[in-house]
């Protein structure tokens, strides 16, 4: 978004003041008309950084645009180094809590693990402790950690999670799918005694309390004892349970002795909103999780750097390792600040593979889920848009996507369809259909050029609300040829919207995204691939449906022109007036005569032809 003098009449004054600003490092303090501090930032070069806010034709993110539109004046503090500017910025933000800086509020609460009081107990994650005779483990500060621990224990020990009551429901129904895919031991079959089942539950509780390595040691002792007593059936069951725990330990994220004290941080974005999640490991166990709604999104790198500074500036302690989902620019400076503040080594890194990458993916999923609640979108939709933006190298997450497709029968009934996806969902009120007007013979490239030019001519002339929004991304159902044909049209009209094509395989399924000079595969971005496929299928449906309707109307018009005195123009009048075959058949002779402008005899003959259609 471009800031103008109309948006902020103080811009000429601010530009003049900034032209005299020092090039030294320091902090700048933006104030509104009431002299209230609304934003604090740091800079390696104060003049260059502050100038970027007030420069003419500077394209800002919506959050920055709002801030700049309210700036009445600013102060600045010069420092000796960029590091000192970072420390000062952190202190000032903590002191003044400006409106447009990241201000953190999390979602704390207490949770328990409940072992139900029944013959065949269950493990459950609960938020309150009741006087119901059940065993409660906790409290824990993180409901997330509790839920994950219960899910993991139920999975490793194959405990039932269904609603059946035991032993009342033994052998009353067939075992559910969970038993067949080895997610449940199948208690409903009646093959497990109460004592045997309770022993397994105690092992699961021990696993939650002490971790996988201690559980394996205890079970190994029990297995060896059973073997010595020649109870080979029990020994085999214990062996299988040990193997299940060891297998789970390879991929589970709850208890991991290789991860000592570590924080994992990820940020999710949807349109103009952002959310951060921090997953905390202490002593090799998932200890806690916190999620923070960051409000309107900012530059990706800056958001992560600002979050690190704000989050750790108020903590009493900090782990040695911090993992991020994306790289940042000032990692070394932030590490230096945190080392001095907490008096021990701090390492900030971005894992690219292995178990640590899986942890950043887990943090990202949590941030996405938290954000989805705030913005009313599913986590799958948010993930799809983020993956698509990253894969295509877009400057921001595409909130408003338009896609176009051409459909024709040889050189007849040439049409195009336009669909709109907003925040990952179809927005049908903005769908458009085009009849090709300037292309006489079949030429998909020329047809696409006409459609795109008509669409943006309407945007600039403001003649239709459906064309009033500038899309964040344009997709064309076609390959590099379509992109290369349309790019000059957009350049000539001054439209800078990202443009890509959608390439199909021999079976008419989405294969890749065309750039105009090559292709980008979305095979590794499953959510983005599914979204693009849905968009391509939808635009194809709209275009081909409209083409079929046009073809049907033309067939009716050809029938009508068989009547002497009815030419193409009069046939077109009738089709336009009555639109459907059913409406034509309901029209009286007099109505047909009046609409087509013919005498009553011609209208009677016309009525006979219509009734036979």
UniProtKB/TrEMBL annotation:
It comes from the Bacteria. The keyword Aminoacyl-tRNA synthetase does not apply. It is found in: Cytoplasm. Gene3D superfamilies: 5' to 3' exonuclease, C-terminal subdomain (1.10.150.20), GIY-YIG endonuclease (3.40.1440.10), UVR domain (4.10.860.10), UvrC, RNAse H endonuclease domain (3.30.420.340). Residues 23-102 form the GIY-YIG domain. Residues 264-490 form the UvrC family homology region profile domain. One of its GO terms (cellular component) is cytoplasm. One of its GO terms (biological process) is SOS response. Residues 213-248 form the UVR domain. Keywords: Cytoplasm, DNA damage, DNA excision, DNA repair, Excision nuclease, SOS response. GO terms for molecular function: DNA binding; excinuclease ABC activity. Belongs to the UvrC family. Interacts with UvrB in an incision complex. PANTHER family: UVRABC SYSTEM PROTEIN C (PTHR30562:SF1), UVRC/OXIDOREDUCTASE (PTHR30562). The UvrABC repair system catalyzes the recognition and processing of DNA lesions. UvrC both incises the 5' and 3' sides of the lesion. The N-terminal half is responsible for the 3' incision and the C-terminal half is responsible for the 5' incision. This is UvrABC system protein C.
């Amino acid at each position: 978004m471009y800031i103008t003098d109309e948006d902020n009449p103080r811009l000429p004054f601010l530009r003049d003041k900034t032209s005299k600003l020092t090039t030294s490092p320091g902090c700048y303090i933006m104030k509104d008309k009431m002299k209230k501090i609304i934003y604090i930032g740091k800079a390696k070069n104060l003049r260059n950084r502050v100038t970027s806010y007030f420069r003419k034709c500077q394209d800002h993110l919506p959050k920055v645009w709002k801030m700049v539109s309210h700036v009445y004046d600013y102060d600045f503090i010069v420092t000796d180094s960029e590091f000192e500017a970072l420390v000062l910025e952190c202190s000032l933000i903590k002191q003044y809590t400006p409106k447009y800086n990241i201000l953190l509020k999390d979602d704390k609460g207490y949770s328990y693990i409940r072992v139900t009081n029944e013959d065949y107990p269950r493990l459950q994650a609960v938020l309150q402790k009741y006087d119901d005779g059940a065993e409660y483990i906790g409290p824990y500060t993180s409901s997330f950690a509790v839920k994950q621990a219960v899910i993991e224990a139920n999975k490793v020990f194959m405990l039932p999670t269904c609603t059946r009551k035991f032993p009342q429901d033994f052998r009353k129904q067939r075992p559910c799918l969970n038993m067949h895919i080895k997610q449940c031991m199948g208690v409903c079959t009646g093959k497990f005694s109460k004592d045997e089942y309770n022993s397994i539950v105690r092992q699961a509780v021990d696993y939650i309390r002490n971790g996988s390595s201690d559980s394996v040691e205890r079970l190994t002792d029990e297995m060896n004892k059973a073997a010595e007593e020649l109870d080979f059936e029990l020994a085999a069951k214990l062996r299988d349970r040990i193997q299940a725990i060891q297998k789970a330990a390879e991929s589970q994220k709850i208890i991991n002795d290789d991860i000592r004290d570590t924080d994992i941080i990820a940020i999710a974005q949807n349109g103009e909103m952002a959310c951060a999640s921090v997953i905390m490991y202490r002593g090799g166990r998932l200890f806690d999780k916190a999620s923070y709604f960051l409000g309107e999104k900012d530059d990706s790198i800056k958001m992560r750097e600002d979050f690190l500074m704000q989050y750790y500036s108020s903590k009493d302690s900090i782990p040695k390792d911090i993992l991020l989902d994306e790289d940042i620019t000032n990692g070394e400076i932030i590490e230096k600040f945190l080392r001095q503040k907490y008096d021990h080594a701090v390492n900030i890194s971005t894992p690219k593979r292995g178990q640590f990458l899986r942890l950043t993916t887990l943090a990202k999923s949590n941030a996405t889920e938290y954000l989805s609640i705030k913005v009313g979108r599913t986590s799958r939709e948010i993930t799809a848009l983020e993956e698509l933006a990253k894969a295509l190298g877009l400057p921001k997450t595409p909130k408003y996507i338009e896609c176009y497709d051409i459909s024709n029968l040889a050189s007849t009934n040439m049409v195009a369809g336009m669909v709109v996806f907003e925040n990952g969902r179809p927005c049908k009120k903005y769908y458009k259909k085009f009849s090709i007007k300037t292309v006489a013979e079949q030429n998909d490239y020329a047809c696409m050029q006409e459609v795109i030019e008509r669409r943006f001519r309407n945007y600039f002339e403001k003649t239709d609300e459906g064309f009033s929004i500038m899309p964040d991304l344009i997709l064309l159902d076609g390959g590099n040829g379509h992109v290369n044909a349309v790019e000059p049209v957009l350049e000539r009209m001054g439209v800078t919207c990202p443009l890509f094509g959608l390439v199909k395989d021999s079976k008419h399924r989405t294969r890749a995204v065309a750039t105009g000079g090559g292709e980008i595969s979305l095979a590794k971005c499953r959510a983005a691939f599914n979204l693009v496929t849905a968009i391509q299928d939808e635009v194809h449906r709209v275009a081909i449906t409209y083409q079929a309707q046009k073809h049907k109307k033309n067939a009716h018009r050809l029938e009508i022109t068989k009547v002497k005195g009815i030419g193409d123009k009069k046939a077109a009048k009738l089709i336009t007036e009555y639109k459907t075959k059913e409406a034509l058949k309901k029209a009286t002779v007099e109505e047909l005569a009046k609409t087509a402008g013919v005498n009553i005899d011609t209208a009677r003959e016309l009525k006979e032809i219509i009734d036979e259609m």
